[in-house]
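FIELD: query
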Amino acid sequence: MSRVKEVYNYFKRRRKIVKEFRPCYAKSEGRIVFLGSPDYNNLGDQAIAYAMCEYVRKQFPSIPYLEFDQNQIFTDFQNVSKNISRNDIILLVGGGNLGDRYLDQRLLRNITVLLFPQNQIIIFPQTIDYSRSIKGFLCRRKNSKLFSKHSNLVMFAREKVSYEKMKRYFRRNTVYLAPDIVFSLGKRTSDHIKRSDKILFCFRKDREKRIKKKDVTRLKSIFKGYKTEDVDTVTNHAILPVAMEKELLQIWENISSAKLVLTDRLHCMIFCAITDTPCIVFSNSNHKIKSSYEWISSLPYIAYCENVENAKKVYEEINSGSFADMNQDFSVLSQSLKTSFKYVKKEQTSL
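FIELD: result
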């Protein structure tokens, strides 16, 4: 799809959603509403949605939880909006889409902030990535202006570079730092999965890639003698909500069975971390991998590598290890949710 058509569809969808908006005047006791869970084929984004649901339900088991996927919002926003009361806390998906690259996620986030000014809104840990262009500058300025008008918007950055940028760009909003929410799943290992001698290659093929095809070929020559397999965290088929957990278990089991994984995908690195799988990770086109790696740099089996020529040496220095609990790193996220519920209860009693 051309960029012009993408932009045209963006504004067409925006007009449709605003037109369909139906405010809900009914009162609720305060629920958690997740708007915009992914309905596409990226297992990294699917893992984020899965982890968000697991985390919230574990932290707040007695609070009702609703979820509307991206397609529901774009095709039936009238029904979605009339089911959200002002007492509900809205969660927006984390990931790496806070910028000017991904129009669907940008539209969903901006429409939510615009149309629900009285609700508590929490954006789960994100990487900020506005391009160094006129388009990127204008998008950032527009988002800053829109977000600043929402007094109850809380934003989480998933690494320090994004944290500093968010504080600078969104000065009127509350910004915190927390790891990618997939880390909150904890260890995902299975006793029946045995390590094989295969090496998995999981490299991007999209506009975020920095490792070129010739680099992957070079890596395969460096590790010749091993059985290799090309995998990806983006499937060639749509992932329905009912199949999400099955798809994630499959990729985790495949990664768990590998002797080593080489990747430039953030969530492949995270999947290796939570399955105790040796991994060499390379950077992509922005800062998210290098910055996110800081959360787990102490793990002896995950190594960051700048140059493909150093991969064999890096591999020789990798040691076995086990994923450590990161609950403490999510304490500020848990506290933010608790504070939001206290605010909602206070508002209810004052009405």
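FIELD: remark
The chain has 13 helices and twelve strands.
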